[in-house]
Structures are given as structure tokens and as C-alpha cells.
Amino acid sequence: MLKKEIKYTDYNGVERKETFLFHLTKAELMEMEMGTVGGLTESITNIINSQNTPEIIKIFKEIILKAYGEKSADGKRFIKVDNVGVPLSIGFSQTEAYSELFMELATNADEAAKFIQGIMPSDVEISDEQIEKIKTENNIQ
Fold first, then answer.
1. How far is Cα 77 from Cα 83, in angstroms, rounded to an integer?
2. pLDDT at residue number 105
3. Burial level of 5, CB count in 10 A (0-12/13-18/19+)?
4. Which residues neighbour 69 within 8 Å (Cβ) at sequence distance 6 or greater?
5. Torsion angle of alpha carbons 64, 58, 110, 33, nearest 10°?
6. What pTM does this model have?
7. Helix (H, G, I), strand (E, B), or coil: what is residue 109?
8. In what order do the strands lie in the sheet with 68-71?
9. What 3-state class would DSSP assign to 82?
């Protein structure tokens, strides 16, 4: 699970600094991988290689919002929907905090790599070598 502190200015002009939580389970990763023609990893690689900016943006947004949630007080659950089934990420996407995070990840490959690694389950790890290889192969700085 990734705890991400985000500084932003709200819609009343108030500067805020809040901590937000992001996490993907193994099941969610598998669903994303198997739910994408050719697999998510291959799809992302193809999109990056083709420099299809609209698709890159779409994937960033999907990953951020799919990973957003709140930890239950007892730590047993990572809650992603409210009591009536509305994703908590909808509310998050309507904040300047989301906008700040999105812009940071879209413009900084190192922060994007840290974010992706941070939201992975603790027993799923992406090595620094794998990250560097992806960045090199796809001419990402």
C-alpha cells in the first residue's frame, strides 16, 4: 500500500496537505492483466512505443482511480466503494489533489515508477533494473 502526501489548493483557495492511500490487490492486477487484449503489460508497452498520448493518459487515470481507497480502522480491509456501491475514487477524482498527483505522474517518469511500485502487493516487486529497462526501451526520461 502506498501512502502519498499531496499538497494542493482546494476550490476555496485554501492550501492543504493530505495523505491519500493507494493499493492494488493481486486479484485486481490479474483482472487488469487478463481483462486487456494481449495483457495489460503488453498493451502498455505498445501504447508507450506508439507514443499514443491519449491512451497513456487513459491508463494513468485508470490505474490511479482503481488503486485509490481508504483503509478500515481495524486494517482488515482496503475500502474502495461506499455503502451504496459508489467508488470512492469518484470523489477523489473531483479534487485538486487528484489533479496534482496526475500531473506529477504524467510528467515525472521516476515518480510514476515509484507510484506503480508502491501500489503493488507487498509480495509483488518490480526491480529497479526492470524499471530502468522499461524506461530505456521506451525512451522515457
1. 14
2. 87
3. exposed
4. 21, 22, 23, 78, 79, 80, 88, 89
5. 70
6. 0.80
7. helix
8. 2-9, 15-22, 68-71, 78-79
9. coil
| Pairwise CA distance, residues 24 & 9, whole Å | 27
Q: Which triple of cell numbers denotes residue 125?
A: 516487486
Which three cell numbers mark 119? 501500489
- CA angle, 50 then 54 then 56, to 5°: 65
Where do we find the cell 502498455? Answer: 44
d(Cα 138, Cα 21) in Å, to the nearest integer?
Answer: 29
- Degrees, nearest 5: CA angle 136-140-141: 100
pLDDT tens column, 54-113: 877 888 899 999 999 999 999 999 999 999 999 999 999 999 999 999 999 888 878 888
Rounded CA-CA distance 28/32 in Å is 6
Tell me how far apart the terminal alpha carbons of the chain are, to the nearest angstrom.
25
